[in-house]
């Protein structure tokens, strides 16, 4: 059974034979109590989330799902429905409809969302102009033989895409579900003239043909394999991150860093809408970052420069903000602390990816009061308190084991829950802001930049707001 499960020496992922894939499906739908509807729903959702991870709806909006008569086609129909909800504009070509309640239900669901169904005749010969993503959901792992009309023609249209106007800047991408249609499940693209997908979404586990896949994006979906099945078939699969329905496998292709470019789309950010006080504006954007569910929205780059004037940056976590400034905690003998003791001027930078925003704050830094540091230190988990004692931050350590040994000893010493004294060399800093810049990405690099700088007016301080060129 597991004897034919091949192993890729490069990435240690299991690949399934056609027989094994069929057996796993039978086990899931037999003794393990799954229904085909459930597995199809999860498979289609995995495909849609994989597509959404790789191709943003703002750039790749028009999706054509070409669906075959079997389960693979059903996965495509489900994926089209989820893509609609994810903000894409799906179209479906489903020329050989399967007259079973499951499939007609999927069609009804799509029709109720006004997803257009296109006949093969409706489709342009050259699919490259009307669509950004072409989902190949024609044939899955159980298919063998030669594709029959109209799928032979549809496969040909996907193959010939590459022969059209190569100079065109943006080309539609081909996403194959589980198996590139027309490929042999185990041998792959036998004559080398089949579909060359940009993305392959393997379901449950990659099939043997996936070893021959050379496109840039290989994803795994179908997060429903119970441990008993994984053990029986000795499946080695990467863990899914967090609550994700998909995980990227295989090596990322070589990336041309100079070509990485986002076209930002954000609401307008205008002078007459911003808060007069930059701290209020900061709080507003910070709340947006929290509401958007961004990871560590309080992470900020802190830049300092010491005696020699050479700058250095590192990330720290914002632990408080009020009219007096921005607070973080650290070791008072670290490199940043040394630099700040020579030169109290520093800069903070927040970057909130997903909101296309950054905030720069410059000012002078001073230590927070000992009471403030004490209070924060004792609010931290015991492990972090011990960690702060163990780490002589920014000094050279002979090895990991040294830190772990010291940590273990202290953990034992404080295992009775006794009070852990704050080390003298640990505490907070507060940056008192003297300049703010709020930046928001906009299309064509015409970004918004609003700078707040203090002005003395009648002995009082007001913040002047100026727009800077992007
Ligand atoms: C997201 C993130 C948050 C961090 N937060 C802190 C922090 O709050 N305090 C701190 O001392 N180091 C923090 N660090 C580690 C610092 O970046 C840095 O390695 C350490 O403070 C030593 O810096 P230095 O040698 O320049 O003083 C954080 C690192 C990351 C990636």
UniProtKB/TrEMBL annotation:
K(+) binds at residues 72, 136, 181. The keyword Oxidoreductase applies. SUPFAM superfamilies: FMN-binding split barrel, YjeF N-terminal domain-like. It is an enzyme of class 5 (isomerase). Binds 1 potassium ion per subunit. InterPro entries: Pyridox_Oxase (IPR000659), Pyridox_Oxase_CS (IPR019740), Pyridox_Oxase_N (IPR011576), Pyridoxamine_oxidase_dimer_C (IPR019576), Split_barrel_FMN-bd (IPR012349), YjeF_N_dom (IPR004443), YjeF_N_dom_sf (IPR036652). Pfam families: PNP_phzG_C (PF10590), PNPOx_N (PF01243), YjeF_N (PF03853). Its EC number is 5.1.99.6. HAMAP family: NADHX_epimerase (MF_01966), PdxH (MF_01629). Catalyzes the epimerization of the S- and R-forms of NAD(P)HX, a damaged form of NAD(P)H that is a result of enzymatic or heat-dependent hydration. This is a prerequisite for the S-specific NAD(P)H-hydrate dehydratase to allow the repair of both epimers of NAD(P)HX. This is NAD(P)H-hydrate epimerase. The lineage of its organism: Eukaryota, Viridiplantae, Streptophyta, Embryophyta, Tracheophyta.
